[in-house]
From TrEMBL:
<keyword id="KW-0813">Transport</keyword>
<feature type="transmembrane region" description="Helical">
    <location>
        <begin position="215"/>
        <end position="237"/>
    </location>
</feature>
<dbReference type="GO" id="GO:0015173">
    <property type="term" value="F:aromatic amino acid transmembrane transporter activity"/>
</dbReference>
<feature type="transmembrane region" description="Helical">
    <location>
        <begin position="272"/>
        <end position="293"/>
    </location>
</feature>
<comment type="function">
    <text>Involved in transporting aromatic amino acids across the cytoplasmic membrane.</text>
</comment>
<keyword id="KW-1003">Cell membrane</keyword>
<feature type="transmembrane region" description="Helical">
    <location>
        <begin position="374"/>
        <end position="401"/>
    </location>
</feature>
<comment type="similarity">
    <text>Belongs to the amino acid/polyamine transporter 2 family. Mtr/TnaB/TyrP permease subfamily.</text>
</comment>
<feature type="transmembrane region" description="Helical">
    <location>
        <begin position="321"/>
        <end position="353"/>
    </location>
</feature>
<feature type="transmembrane region" description="Helical">
    <location>
        <begin position="143"/>
        <end position="165"/>
    </location>
</feature>
<keyword id="KW-0472">Membrane</keyword>
<feature type="transmembrane region" description="Helical">
    <location>
        <begin position="112"/>
        <end position="131"/>
    </location>
</feature>
<dbReference type="InterPro" id="IPR013059">
    <property type="entry name" value="Trp_tyr_transpt"/>
</dbReference>
<keyword id="KW-0997">Cell inner membrane</keyword>
<dbReference type="GO" id="GO:0005886">
    <property type="term" value="C:plasma membrane"/>
</dbReference>
<protein>
    <recommendedName>
        <fullName>Aromatic amino acid permease</fullName>
    </recommendedName>
</protein>
<keyword id="KW-0812">Transmembrane</keyword>
Length: 403
């Protein structure tokens, strides 16, 4: 079998990221608006790429099938491992839950069936790729990213030609400065680059940390390119005040698409954006599902056999499906909630693992993240502050944009 391409892995990482970010960032960034949203998203991408590399470094002396659970249990104490396991499964589950809920609303109209049946059919079809193999996810991720690129370019070119510069660079006229809203954007931006449950999958897939590092960087750069183009084009077409109803309605994909539809007249642009939103949800669902699947297989000790993979499929996809059928809720609320917990296993724990490994093996052989301990402390600080900002926002102690 030929060695997997770096592009395939980058597409898996990008597909994990892009669904959450594309649908959550415009509403979450409406308060900060264009300039501060671009700054917050770009800085988050850098921090999250470094934290993924730190996790990759921590894994380097373990067997390739080892995941978060194995390395955390060995390098840190069992109490921290339990906290990490709970936060990882909570975030993975809540993201799958958000994607299933959104897909139910979208595909019920397309298929002419109930939302509940559409959600079941969506999970049955899309999770089959995860059940089959990482290679299958690689292949479908490339196809979905290609669909996203084509539909994104078609939709974005139409939006770009209609950008209003005064709307795009609107400035605060008294009241709260836009920069203050950027703090509450960070948890959603962090979740938008939350691919870390797939780091061990990439390492196992390539059997090489250095190629996995390139795939991670490629994936986060692809995601960043999508995000910046997307928010710039949306903020240039939909006024800041028009985001009030979108935010009030929970920032769901259907409400966001409705706001765009009222802002642009071209039916072809609307169709392209609709295809893009579908591809974004499908790709993210499959990408996140793969990471959670491999993590739970390691956690429960399920073998890589047909029976073992079926058991892993059940614990990965059935709980979020059931919850989405019983109580679907707003997309941005789910992403923001996940962002607070995600700081634990996307920033704090990876940095602690790398620090512990360096203390245990000071010779630092093999893959090492540049920057020394400064990188570790900066990533931990970013994670702690982002979690604090989310808690402060929940307590109404940070400015929250409501239109």
């Amino acid at each position: 079998m030929s060695k997997p391409s770096t592009l395939g892995g980058a597409c898996i990482i990008a597909s994990v990221c892009v669904g959450a970010g594309m649908l959550g960032l415009p509403s979450a960034g409406a308060g900060a608006w264009t300039l501060w949203s671009v700054v917050a998203i770009s800085f988050t991408m850098i921090m999250m790429t470094l934290s993924g590399w730190l996790l990759l470094e921590a894994l380097k002396h373990y067997e390739f099938k080892a995941s978060f659970n194995t390395v955390t249990k060995d390098l840190l104490n069992n109490k921290l491992n339990v906290i990490n396991n709970l936060s990882l499964y909570f975030v993975g589950g809540i993201l799958l839950y958000a994607y299933i809920s959104s897909s139910g609303m979208i595909f019920s109209d397309i298929l002419g069936v109930t939302r509940e049946l559409a959600s079941v059919l969506f999970v049955a079809f899309c999770s089959a790729f995860v059940l089959h193999s990482t290679r299958a996810v690689d292949r479908i991720s490339i196809v979905l990213i290609l669909f996203m690129v084509i539909s994104f370019v078609l939709g974005i070119s139409g939006l770009a030609s209609n950008i209003s510069v005064p709307v795009l660079f609107e400035q605060a006229q008294g009241g709260t400065p836009y920069s203050a809203y950027a703090l509450a954007l960070l948890p959603v931006a962090l979740t938008s680059f939350g691919y870390h449950h797939s780091v061990s999958t990439m390492r196992d897939y390539y059997q090489d940390e250095h190629q996995a590092k390139k795939a991670i960087l490629g994936g986060t750069l692809i995601a960043l390119t999508f995000y910046l183009g997307w928010v710039i084009c949306i903020f240039g077409n939909v006024s800041r005040e028009a985001f009030g109803p979108v935010v009030t309605a929970g920032g769901g994909v259907d409400v966001l698409m409705s706001a765009l539809t009222s802002a642009i007249d071209s039916n072809s642009i609307q169709q392209a954006l609709h295809v893009f939103s579908i591809a974004a949800i499908v790709s993210s669902f499959i990408g996140v599902g793969l990471g959670v699947f491999d993590y739970l297989a390691d956690f429960f000790g399920f073998g890589d056999t047909k029976q073992g993979r079926l058991k892993t499929w059940g614990v990965t996809f059935l709980p979020p499906l059931v919850f989405s059928l019983v109580a679907p809720f707003g997309f941005v609320a789910a992403i923001g909630l996940a962002g607070a917990a995600a700081t634990i296993w996307t920033c704090i724990i990876p940095a602690m693992l790398a620090k512990k490994l360096r203390q245990r093996q000071p010779e630092q052989e093999g893959f090492v993240v540049p920057g020394g301990n400064v990188t570790i402390y900066v990533v931990i600080a970013f994670g702690v502050l982002t979690a604090a900002f989310h808690l402060l926002a929940m307590a109404n102690l940070l400015p929250i944009f409501k239109g």
